[in-house]
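Appendix B, example 12.
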Amino acid sequence: MQALAAFRDARISRALRLAVAVAALAVAGCAGTPRFDGTSLPAVELDDVPFFPQTDYQCGPAALATILAHEGLPVDADALVPAVYIEGLRGSLQAELLAATRRHGLVPYRLRPDPDALLAEVSSGKPVLVLQNLGLDRFPVWHYAVVVGFDPSRGDVLLRSGTERRRRERVSRFLRSWARAGYWAFVAAAPDEPPVTADADGWIRAVTDAAHVLAPSSADAALRAATSRWPTAPIVMYASAVRLGEAGRWQDAARAYAALLESDPGNAAARNNLANMLAEGGCFDEALRQARAALASVRADSPLRPAIEDTVATLLRRSDGAAVEPDSCASFP
């Protein structure tokens, strides 16, 4: 069983990332042209958000320190410089800001490119880190700032920006600069508190990307929060089953995959992992049947196909020398 456990752990992790990637492809391109429908909302200002004035070109560390400190972390901009500031670029890359957020035990959640999402997060009490292009498309001037409020009656957005603790910017100007930066924005979320604008696929993607640096207890908390908020979402049910498998609870994991397949029978990744869990319990006949069914359900160019083919091949080798299946296999028809 040790050999099966080894290939199970590697393949489940890969299958989870593949399933998340497939889910991402399914929703890609759904966002439309951003709107600004905030005129019916009351004015909001998060006055308690800390302020770290930037030095030189270090708006990235300053903006990141702002949102991390707001979550109660003992950070400052200077301490973040080595982690996110690239001297040769005289700036910070988005990937570095996201990675640093994960290393501090938080989940960076990318907002959809829609001012309504930004306003909703600020209204919920979350400052939003945004990327702006203060120049032109051909001659960009990149700048990170933190949205801390908005005033619909005046048509203003309030920012922690550069050396200004309370910068007022006209909505039209802000939207142009944000649009030139691809509407890039994120919030730093505690693992047990998904942002108000989060959806199941986006949250599981964000948690999966952070899982390699999050403490196991934080990863568990993030999954429990997802299960509480989106109990019937296939990607959440899938992630819960994966977690059970990683904990060595093959029977619980198999039942979780079976429950998911009742509502989503075409989920090849779940069926493949169900096969792995059944094999963990020595149920090779049913495991092979499930793996072959998973293989038959995917196209030749599916990114899942290599993992499923590997499962089938491994099970064929293992089942040849398997003893009589245990009685526990009878509970998995």
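The radius of gyration is 23 Å. The beta strands are 44-45, 107-110, 128-133, 142-151, 156-161, 164-170, 185-189.
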